[in-house]
Amino acid sequence: MLKKILPGLAAILAALLLAVAINTLRQGSRQIDVPPVQPLAFDENAAAQRLAAAVRLRTISFDGQSAASAAEFRKLHALLKKFFPRAHAALKRETVNELSLLYAWPGSDPAAKPVMLMAHQDVVPIASGTERDWQADPFAGEIRDGFVWGRGAWDNKANLFAIFEAIETLAASGFKPRQTLYIVAGHDEEIGGEQGAMAIAALLQSRGVRLDFVVDEGLLITEGILKGLDRPAALIGIAEKGYLTLALAAKARPGHSSMPPPETAIGMLSAALARLEDRQMPAAIRGVAAEMFDTLAPEMGGVNRVLLSNLWLFGPVVKSQLEKGASTNAMLRTTTALTVVQGGNKENVLPGRAEALVNFRILPGDTGNGVSAHVKATVANEAISVARSGHANEPTPISPSAAPSYRLINRTIRELFSGTVVAPSLMIAATDSRHMASIADAIYRFSPVRAKSEDLPRFHGTNERISVANHAELIRFYHRLLLNAAGTPEEKK
Ligand SMILES: [Zn+2]
Prior knowledge:
Oligomer: single chain
Bound molecules: zinc ion
Shape: globular
Largest sheet: 8 strands, mixed
């Protein structure tokens, strides 16, 4: 009997190995081949000084914007005018809700759909208790050890100023864009963008504007962050997750704790919350995540390449590995985060009510209603109500990675950052660009900020900074992107 089975098993194993090997080798690189370009030469330190001046302005966003910070925003507007006179001569400038900025540079081809670059003016506050952990005063705009230090140096004044540095240079050279170029600089991105980007989107929509594509802040050039990849990876966010908070409230009869009934408000709520953590929304390597891994796999080495090139066989193994990491897990599913719980106010009294907030980040493909249905089915308790709380938004549409606009960004990165792998990816946090979804054919969330694992906590955190050299790369990126978009890269090298 065994003699008959063994050769059969061996044949199956050999066929599997062969299929794995063929798949691994067949999936060739998707990286586009472009010759590197001569980097634009300019005074990098002077550009860093201008960024540092912007960092000194406390354009801090908090709910109920104060008059004090409104004055800081106006100072920032004045800085832009002072530092970039040619840009301000070439572009039309409007303010929206007083503090947000909308610029337009009319294109030479009125039939072409416009393009939009975005960067927000506001910054997050310094978390109280962390002030002393800073190696430089967060609002001093210090340049030290080759870095511009301070709140906003990375998020997002570097991008705002790099866009204007690029436009200033282009305007000085007599360049005119082919497509009309909009620059949007919102003042309330960190608190939802309703007064800024959302209002600007509505204004442009009322004028009948339809955008070819938008580039906003987002994913980065990661260095050593992606397992199995020994080169930098420029990740372009082609979609953004949605946002939903559900309020759970358990009701029970209040009473004395000396005679507790079998079911209490806190007990029922706790059990429901535990079930929600246990039975999460399903994870899968599909959609944007699948596209990212398909693009990265051929660039990887060793076992990672074999595994990711053969998801038909190793999918379950890879998925369970990815689910173990918080950031990779967030790419595969709608995440469930228990963020607030309240109930009871005295040790010997059973409360009549216990409440919790659960925050979900919705994967493209899932919906807010789908999440609510999942929660109700998982809670499965009539004594617990489930209701939406606060603002919510659905995941954005997925922008095409096969579109000419994606290829334009891809090419610009490959020209300027040689050896960098470019891949589409999923933005798991929110950006102002989501407000443009209804007026744009495509939205890409990318900024060529270089980041290693140890840099990531600086984002919204302590010791935020950007290197002078990296800031110069941002300027070159926007400069080259606009040249490439105009289709005149050769004579304008
Ligand atoms: Zn930001």
